[in-house]
Specification:
This is Reverse transcriptase zinc-binding domain-containing protein. Pfam families: zf-RVT (PF13966). InterPro entries: RVT-Znf. It is built from 6 helices and no strands. It has 118 residues and is an all-alpha fold. The chain folds into 2 domains: 37 residues, no CATH class; 68 residues, no CATH class. The radius of gyration is 23 Å and the shape is elongated. The two termini are 45 Å apart.
């Protein structure tokens, strides 16, 4: 929808040289200004500080973001039913869900206790 608005706001000069100039507030090109124009900020969420920071590893931020949204590929997803649904880490007769992995799985708890103390 926004790309339609941006396209409609462009003025076309007939007979002139075809070029695009994207300037920031100071009059010179700014990739940050272009990014901000194309990706306006969304609503602030309580957990954003977990994902934003200079010392956060991008891969970890991405996996944490998926976990917060409940989008990790756990065995409780319908497209993975051919694998079974029980937790393969603790071998309990419990479905592998986000809640189980992060709160009740004995194996994951041991990992969090051991590696969470870094």
């Amino acid at each position: 929808m926004e790309s339609i608005e941006i396209t409609q706001s462009l003025s076309i000069i007939h007979g002139g040289i075809d070029w695009i100039l994207w300037t920031g507030p100071g009059g010179s090109f700014s990739s940050a200004a272009a990014y901000d124009m194309l990706h306006p900020p969304g609503p602030k969420v309580d957990w954003s500080s977990l994902l934003v920071g200079t010392f956060k590893i991008p891969r970890h931020r991405f996996i944490l973001w998926l976990a917060i949204l409940g989008r990790l590929s756990t065995l409780d997803k319908p497209w993975l039913h051919h694998l079974g649904t029980n937790c393969v880490l603790c071998r309990a007769d419990t479905p592998e869900t986000h809640d189980h992995l992060f709160f009740t799985c004995s194996f994951a708890s041991k990992c969090f206790m051991r590696y969470g103390a870094w």
